[in-house]
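Dig into what follows:

_____
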Amino acid sequence: MEVISLETLVLIVAAFLILIAPGLAIYVLAERVLAPRTSNAVPLAPLFGIGLSIGFWPLLLLYCSLIGIHFVPLFVGATVAISLVVALIAWWPQLKGYRPSSDGIVSGLALASLTIFALVFRLGDIQGLAVPMFGDSLHHTMITTIIAQTGQVPTSYQPFVPVTTFTYHFGFHTLAAVLSKLTGATVPDAVLIMGQVLIVLSIPVAYLFGRVLFRSSLAGLVSALITGFISVMPSYYVNWGRYTQLAGQILLPVALALLVRLVRGDSRRLDFALTAFCIGALGVVHYRILIFYGLFALALAIWRLVTCWGRWSFLVGDLARVVGAGAIGVLVAAPWLANVLANYYPGLARRLGSVTTEYIAGYNSLDNFTRYVGVALALLGALGVFAAIVSLARQSFRAPPKDTTATGDPPGLPASVAALTVATWAGLMFASLWPIPGAIGSYTVAIALYIPLSALGGYGAAWATEVLQHGVRIADAWLSVAVAAGAPICAILFSTAHIAHPELFAYVRDPDLKAFDWINSNTPTDAGFLISSEISYAGRGLTASDAGMWIPLEAGRKVSVPALSAWTEQPIVPDFFTDTRKLAVLTQPLDKSETQQTPGGEESPTPAPPGSQATLALMQKLGINYIFSGSPGGASKQRLDIAGMRKDRCHFQLVYGPEGGVNIFRVLYDGSGCAK
């Protein structure tokens, strides 16, 4: 992708509008109706709007789909325009009367600087990419394509995979599809740009989270600095295309900030309504992130109970509000959750019941924490915990609650206790690996820990600054400037300025794109392609291993290895996935020991030569009449027996290549190649 172009700038502006305008409109309208006297959140309203926008689009798509309305370009454009106009009109009275302090202005400029720095770095990461990287990007782009083509929530993966259900969360895909509809961009470009903008927006929502929890702009700024320039997550997601979890993790801090405000009683009617909205949104944006939300609520309940012990009216009120918001949130997402319960969870229960010790050892490997969290982030989190303990040691832990009017600290939740709540939440996330083995893996947790650890680091830095200023007072404005100036320095020191590695994670290169063009021009539209694959997830999964996986999206032809997320759905032909697995095992390299593993636990044949009777029969049954082997390099692994096909001229005719390492064969089931 060419990132320095007018088209890219249009995409970026459109993405920011999509991710801010609707949520801002929701926030300011709700505030005017439910908390008309509240004005202290003026600078935070756009930040709340980010999370609310992420929830708005998939929920709107869900309900539009239920009543038969399609997301067409005019509808999408009108929604963005109306949202922007409503937001500006509803927000104007507060803006007109708002008088920010000089420190507040500098803090806002510092946050804007961090965001701009990150945007420049992240756009540099996708320079030259034709499609998003790694395996997950395929099914994310596929789902986005279905939404963009139909304008509704998918009901299956057709025409790409012959299944009759769709149960995957669709938050990110809706955002990327909306961007494609609004701008006319290709879906791969929309996925790439929306992914990078979401990574960038993790910075302002980190600020929001720290600012609300600890009531400190400095804590929020340092948390934003850590998130964008010290932690490798979430910027590293560009290598995996892990944008669905990212969308959930941008919504999550906003949802948690609202939950904390609800418990504190800042503006209960407003925060109750928005908390319920966020819970419903998480139900369609990302399932595991909804679990992480619940774990934070549990951590908050623990510390609320400890610090408010005996004040039962506070505790009962908290419980009623949180449970009530949760119940309404579930009702908001109920039309989708009913589909998930009916079509996804029965299969999930079977899969979890069949996990092996070997699978769990890899899925819950503790190495993921050292690999993806890192020493610096862990130490910053530890600083926050230390600061909280020291702060509590300076006061009577069981002292009577402070007067909230006088101090702004509600009963039981001063900044130090909020920090311990975040630390407890991180511990619960880590502990979530064990209650249901195989449900939440260490990888998923490890790449999400930047949220609590960055917040703790921000709190710890603000505390340390306060301690050091006993002798010499430094103006808050200068501290904000120091944070902004530290961003490029941290990016260099922690190697986060350029974090993409196409040489390790990209599948598609120019030779593959040329081959896709050839396929479009020279093969029937109903052609089927055998592609390279490997057995993964300790024998439980099957994944494509080269650029051939992109043929359905780039050339419109079916392939032998369906997108990974489709394997949890119900096939039209009952034995479709079983036959697909068998064919994959038959075509594994003959000299690889790992090919003896059997995905799904079914009885499967052993690898066989490409021209064997069993291989040809199964290819013919699945409608395979071509074979594709992609270019080498990056994440690609060429595992098909190209040499064997070249020798067996009776059954395989080379029709393309080798061009840049790409080979395409036509399958001759009648053996007619022997006569040539």
In short: The two ends are 44 Å apart (CA to CA). The first strand starts at residue 528 and ends at 531. Residues 507-675 form one domain. The CA atoms of residues 17 and 392 lie 42 Å apart.
